Amino acid sequence: MRLCYTNGMRLCYTNGMRLCFTNGMRLCYTNGTRLCYTNGTRVCYTNGTRLCYTNGMRSCYTNGMRLCFTNGMRLCFTNGTRLCYTNGTRLCYTNGTRLCFTNGMWLCYTNGMRLCYTNGMRLCYTNGMRLCFTNGMRLCYTNGMRLCYTNGTRLCFTNGTRLCFTNGTRLCFTNGMRLCFTNGMRLCFTNGMRLCYTNGTRVCYTNGTRLCYTNGMRLCYTNGTRLCYTNGMRLCYTNGMRLCFTNGMRLCYTNGMRLCYTNGTRVCYTNGTRLCYTNGMRLCYTNGTRVCYTNGNRVCYTNGTRVCYTNGTRVCYTNGMRLCYTNGWKAVLGV
To answer: Are strands 177-182 and 169-174 parallel, antiparallel or unpaired?
Structure first.
């Protein structure tokens, strides 16, 4: 072995290779490449880059980062994370998960599913559908519609409206109101009351009673009878007749006349006069006097005396005796 010293450095040539020792480190030059061995690791420097080979893998250090090449793929390790670049895509492996960065998005593949994280949100793609998980909720996007699954319920957001599908029923939430569509009918639930809209009419169901609101009037149907409430008064329509109940009294309006039934007696009010019909006889009360009409004759009862008017003649009955007044004279008939 040819041995010499140059500038205090021990230099020798072995098999034509220039070899020297500096500070106890074996250093050689092959084809102009500086090559050294440290602790049994072959290290060389190319264009100022420290390069070594470990177990046949070419490894170098750039700016303190360990970089190696395996099968032509550039691989490096940063803070113990294996990082490589394939076709310009930065790829790393963490805990056996393949992870890469594309366009600043952190992307990995788990069990063949492409998974990435954007702004801390876990995002993956399955069968071309964008899927992510937010706060443990599975979320995906289909045709630009945000879709997620919560407790097995399919939930999506369209134009900011929360929409989900349960058992094939389209359900959404607007302003905290649960809204769904069944057979094209918009149905929602407010305070546990089922509410829907049919042809623009608000309809709800309470305890199985169909209730709707038309022009702000509460309307429901019970046993096929249309029933509504106006100003707290229960109002229904039977056979086209408006019928309402006030304080338990059945009240209806026929041809604009207020008609009610009290204890089975038909009572109506005309021009403020209380009028009723008993056994087909028209009966009214004027100033507290009971007045009825029989066969067109006006009959009233005053202090228990039956009084009627026939052809303008006042006739009354006292103790079964017919008494009339003609021109102010009292006369007893039948005597």
So the answer is: antiparallel
